[in-house]
Amino acid sequence: MERKAGNMKDVKIEQRIDALLSRMTLEEKAGQLHQAGGSLVGAFDMTIGDIFTMVEDGRMTREEAHKLLSESKRDWQEEDLRAGRIGSYIGITSAEEMNRLQHIAVEESRLGIPVFNGFDVIHGFRTITPIPLAESCAWEPALWERTARMSAEEASSAGIHMTFSPMVDVSKDPRWGRIAESAGEEALLNGLYGEAKVKGYQTEDLTRHDALAACVKHFAAYGAAEGGRDYNRVDMSPQRLEEEYLPSYERAVKAGAWAVMPAFNDISGVPCSVNRKLLTDILRRRWGFEGMTISDANAIAECINHGIAADRQDAARQALNAGMDMDMTSGCFLENLKTLVENGAVSVETLDEAVRHVLRLKFALGLFDDPYRSSAAQERAAMLTPAHRALAREAAQKSMVLLKNEGVLPLEKHMCVGLAGKLAFDGDEMSGTWAGFVKPGDCVSLSDAMHGASIAFVPVTEDMLPECDVFLCAVGEHKEESGEAASRARLELNETDLALLRRLRESGRPVIAVVFAGRPLCLGPVVEAADAILMAWHPGVEAGNAILDLLYGRVNPSAKLTAGFPVTTGQCPTLYYDHIMTGRPAGKFKFTSKYLDSPVEPLFPFGFGLSYTSFHYSDISAVQTEDGIHAEISVDNAGDWAGDEIVQCYFRDPVARRVRPVRKLAAFSKITLQPGESRRLSFEIPFQMLGYYDQDMHFCVDDGQIEIFIGGNVWDTEKADVILTRGE
Ligand code: NOJ
């Protein structure tokens, strides 16, 4: 990708920025770079962090904390706003509140510079759609864009101008709780996911009242945290960083995202918040990014904990000089930038450049000419409308992966269902992580949906198995078990769920497992105990309805995994699909790269997912063209159901100057085929995509053999060879 990021500069606006900069004091400049959060007010003296700690150590229940947080008033530090010490807010969720504060900024501060407001709108605002990992399993950029558009319409009407999304962190380790927020283990998919989200949030015109500025995060390689432990170190070769991790951010940035959030982690010893190579050399110089960077929450101050900054002032100095523009909530910039400029540790040009990026975004959002844009958005938007629910349902249908089906699905409506597992009755669990604005009762549980569809069911109780034709058993993770700060060292299903499944199995009647989770789990025992498995993830507000659509065959399952499922946690990071070959690849012989007590391959591979029909692949061909490789394959629907198939095209470079992955996804195509219908598909793989970095970090594309694989999942493919003869 040699293209540079979108041109965000407009001569007239740059002149207005120059004029403003010439009038601003150092304090006001520092103020523009400070993002403030609201502190809680009330009859207690507690921060939001204290509340989380109390939940963790059991002094407060989650429900109590939720009530407290949603009912307590926030102090938005109006005095600071009036004095020009706040450049933006995080966490305002009402247009009235936003406009009240905007009036203070515009009418009562000396220069009248408007503020903007950011919020984590990750997979929907009020209309919660499937978690990103789930939605990625649809392999459908147009869907990703439509759900982003819906989120933006709702969120903008609640006074929000920026969403801290998309997250495009390639995640190869399911122990990491934030894999839920990603598009899985694959770089191209994460990039396409990010690109679609950016387009959906921002539209072509950020001044639109229903547009949100997108913030691409977490730059970079946050998903590679060692041991899958959140916030942990990332240490990798520059080649690997370039080939496997940076491309997704690059694509999302070049789609025109207006903001980028550096990650909490360090890369090879340099925290991203103070990483000049990342924030300036790569992001600005190489990719041409002209928007603003914003730290992760408190991350600048945390450079002291990293042991890279001596104190808050040192942290502020390093971050600003590295290319950080805005400080999310730590206060280090606000407190220290004036002094740092005065004593020469930071140049006024560097400070001005950061302020320029922030002001440029405010102009792009139209806030200088239209500061109360949230009111107009509020008038137009409606939340959780039937149309929004319909889109959430479609997204959920397209996200759930059918992992096993031994002839029991689809179900027939007359069958009596024994419904088991607490998650089947708990709608509020369906939203998954990062759903800050969803309300109790918004999500349709499985049991709600069965009531709604008049399907006869009997709940399974602890002491008795009811008479029924089939058991439907909900198992898996609660929403708090994935997401930020939710890494797990055990991905095996919990004992209660396993015991329940086994009890049902002993009845001799068919068992269907519906798995809710924010990550791949170790489902071996579920495969043994259930006749069918639907991986439902955390599906959002239309959870129950979408599950029934699939189980009863109103919709044919089509989703495919974007991250492999481990056999056991000890395999993590799982043998991800694009692993490299060792000198002793796993085999029967003892001295090969494997485990004594577990298979080495994942239980379900990348790209895997079943349908009620079956697709047959034949006649693969591949040739070199002027620009790369042209490959073709025929796919036909050999079953009785119309269905969607996600056709995946991979390549491998078998002899190269550095060891290369065993498979690399080059392209895919999602098609619909009627029973008996056949289609010939073609894929173009540009030379650039076949390239890699050699030992000296030179990008190269080799002549010689390239293997092409096309099929329905990474290990179920047809193969063709091409001999590249470019003579370079
Ligand atoms: C911390 C998370 O890492 C980031 O993803 C999020 O956007 C910020 N907090 C703000 O909530």
Describe the structure.
The protein is of the alpha/beta class. 31% of the residues lie in helices and 19% in strands. The chain has an 8-stranded parallel beta sheet. A 6-stranded mixed beta sheet has the order 13-18-17-16-14-15, sandwiched between helices. A 4-stranded antiparallel beta sheet has the order 22-21-26-27, with no helix packed on it. The longest helix has 17 residues, at 238-254. It is globular and about 75 Å long. The structure holds 1-deoxynojirimycin. The site of 1-deoxynojirimycin has 6 residues, from loops.
Structural class: alpha/beta
- Find the count of extended strands (DSSP E, 2+ residues): 27
Q: What's the CATH H-level homologous superfamily of the domain at 385-571?
A: Glycoside hydrolase family 3 C-terminal domain
CATH class of the domain at 385-571: Alpha Beta
CATH architectural grouping of the domain at 385-571: 3-Layer(aba) Sandwich
Shape: globular
Low-confidence stretches: none
Average predicted confidence as pLDDT? 96
| Total of helices | 22
Distance between the termini: 19 Å
Bound molecules: 1-deoxynojirimycin
Task: Give the C-alpha Rg.
Answer: 26 Å
The percent range for helix content is 25-40%
Order of strands across the biggest sheet?
11-8-7-6-5-4-1-12
CATH topology of the domain at 385-571: Rossmann fold
Major sheet summary line = 8 strands, parallel
Approximately what portion of the residues adopt beta-strand conformation?
Answer: 15-25%
